[in-house]
Amino acid sequence: MSTQPLKENRLFINGEFVPSVSGKTFDLTNPTTEEKIASVYEAGAEDVDLGVKAAGAAFPAWSALSAEERCDYLIKLADEIEKNEELFMHLEAIAMGMPQSATKFVIQLAKRYLRYFGTHAIDITGETSLNTTGYINLSIRQPYGVCGGIIPWNAPLFMIVTKLGPALAAGNTMVVKSSEKSPLSSILVGLLCQNIGLPKGVLNILNGFGRPCGEAIAKHMDIRRISFTGSVATGRAIQKASAESNLKDVSLELGGKSPLLVFDDAPLEKTVMAAAFSILYNSGQVCMASTRIYVQEGIAPKFIKALKGAMSELGVPGDPLLASTKRGPQVDKLQFDRVLSFLDHAKEKGYDIALGGNKALDKGYFIDATIVRDVPENDKLIREEIFGPVLVINMFTDEDEVLNKANDTEFGLYSSVFTSDLSRALRVVKSLEAGAVGVNCTSPFMAIDMPMGGWKQSGAGAREFSKACLETWTQTKAVFISL
Ligand code: NAD
């Protein structure tokens, strides 16, 4: 395949690819080679307007289709993604350094997600009530109309699918902005929408930056709902923009700093492999990655030794275009420098760096698989999202102590507990402040029928999987019928 196998680089508006109104473009760099791979058109506020107009015009006919008719398109889109797996793997490798094995997993997830929502839209129903004398009352669920989606760069195909799948199934039309760091797979989704004959304007896809493009979506007066996945800081900006414009419904899926609790009776090998995979998958650029490990004193020496071995093996960096590569680079220079700054901080503070701690290769934005031990709980390595292959391990004595430490964070996206004691597992599950908890596992991303959404500052108003997600894309109307 050529360096940039995708010839299209424009915005997908009203079913056609068009240049941006300003004609501006921006460059993309391959994080493995540090070379330019493509230029794409950059959307501004005028392009957002065009997308919203197209989505508005498409809404009446799209929402009038039966649920099955809408869902047929989603199933067809999943089939098209299947036919183009090689191309998606290539694009994610050159645009964001995702190894083929990691992209394969994301592609499976994206297809399953579309097929799930393509099957379950028919389950959107309301309620009836005879509880008021002289009335039959009912509630109906209706789409919002034109919705906005803003996605991060770290799993581009899956992220766009999480927005368009349930939104379109529920009868909405959309304007989605891809991340400026990884827009290529979203452009390919636009091409596939043309292949399946998705009606014009139902989905509009813009390449662009947070400002002006994302901001214009967040402020737009004709967008009724916005679904955002990204950092807490941007989530806050989007909520503010909504508050200051038309009070659109806002769904936020935000960052995490997930704790993983290892008790003395944990199944050692399983725990080690789960912990290593969680921090190294996509080079730690995963919102739910287990970044804080708390290990009980008795098992700590064995656990840390085995984890160092597993991370050394799984963490070997390489070219994401090679099928044998296990781990790629960080997405770009900005992210690379950010992760290195955390490592410099650990060195300045004199923390125990038990593994790695440096830039990994001479070329490309590769960072060592890293373990830092015994870090004070108030340090930024424990408090802030690093979004790299960097793990902190601290020890604990008893259950109360570890629960206090695990919950002492503003994040609440994901947590895991490893133990052979079922009662303890369930006690801990109940006490952990997170939207999802794994018992003897980290995140089984494939569980699409389970509602996922962050607690605390990891989210607001969002449920991204399951039928609960579909409901978030509809608004209810109460209907009172006097007998
Ligand atoms: P980010 O917040 O920097 O950017 C996310 C998106 O928002 C991008 O498309 C960006 O262009 C846009 N944006 C930036 N400023 C904006 C503004 N003022 N108005 C509107 N849009 C704006 O996040 P990122 O660096 O792309 O992604 C990493 C973050 O995403 C991490 O915090 C990670 O934990 C989080 N994340 C969360 C989940 C989840 O499911 N909870 C999943 C993936 C990533």
UniProtKB/TrEMBL annotation:
- InterPro entries reported in the protein's UniProt record: Ald_DH/histidinol_DH, Ald_DH_C, Ald_DH_CS_CYS, Ald_DH_CS_GLU, Ald_DH_N, Aldehyde_DH_dom
Show the active-site residues: E253
Spell out the family assignment given in the record's similarity comment: Belongs to the aldehyde dehydrogenase family.
Q: Provide the E.C. number(s) assigned to this enzyme.
A: 1.2.1.3
- Chain segments annotated as transmembrane: none
The family database entries (PANTHER family) matched by this protein are listed as: ALDEHYDE DEHYDROGENASE-RELATED
Q: What is this protein called?
A: aldehyde dehydrogenase (NAD(+))
Can you state which reaction this protein catalyses?
Answer: an aldehyde + NAD(+) + H2O = a carboxylate + NADH + 2 H(+)
Q: Which domain of life is it from?
A: Eukaryota
Q: Which positions fall inside the Aldehyde dehydrogenase domain?
A: 18-479
Q: Which GO terms describe its molecular function?
A: aldehyde dehydrogenase (NAD+) activity
- Gene3D superfamilies given for it? Aldehyde Dehydrogenase, Chain A, domain 1 (3.40.605.10), Aldehyde Dehydrogenase, Chain A, domain 2 (3.40.309.10)
Which key words are in the record?
Oxidoreductase
Q: Which organism is this entry from?
A: Clonostachys chloroleuca
